[in-house]
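User: Hey, my collaborator sent me this sequence without any context and asked if I could get a structure. I don't really work with proteins. Can you help?
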Amino acid sequence: MGDKPTFLSLLRSPVLLLAFGFGSGLSKKAPGTVGSLVALVIWILIADLSLIPYITFLIISGLIGVYICGVASEKLGVHDHGGIVWDEFVGLWIAMICLPVSWLSIILGFGLFRFFDIVKPWPISWADKNVSGGLGIMLDDVFAGFAAAASIALIQHFGFF
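Assistant: No problem. I've predicted the 3D structure and written it out in C-alpha cell form, which is a compact way to encode the shape of the chain:
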C-alpha cells in the first residue's frame, strides 16, 4: 500500500479508518493534534458516562488500539506512521477522565495531553523508543494521557481548577 494512504483507501479498510481517526490522521500538518481535536468531539459524547463505563470504554478502546495500530503499521510498512492517531484518541480520553464538559476542561486536558505527547518526558520517551508493534504505538500516548490526568488532579487538588 505504501506509506501515503488516501481517504478512499481508509474507507476500504475499517482498520485503517479507525487507526487514522476517521480520516483526521490524513492531515498534512500536525495529524496528532488534528486527531486529538476529533477525539475531543467524541469525548464530549462520552464524558457523562459514570466512572465504570468510562473506564470500560477506555480499556476496550486501548485493546482495540493495540490491534488496529499494529495492523495499520504493518500494512503501511512504517512503525508508528504519523497518520496513525487512534493512540491520541485513547491518550486524550485518559487525560480527560472525570472532567466536566467545559471550555476550561477542554483547554487544560487538550493542552496538557499534547504537551506530554510532544515533549515526551520519561517514561513516555522510554515507551516511545523501546516498545514496538501496536503496543508501542499505543503506550507512549497512554502514558502521556496518565501524565496529563495526574497533572490535572494536582491542579484540582491545589484549587486552581
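In plain terms: The chain has a mean pLDDT of 95. You can pass these C-alpha cells on to your collaborator as they are.
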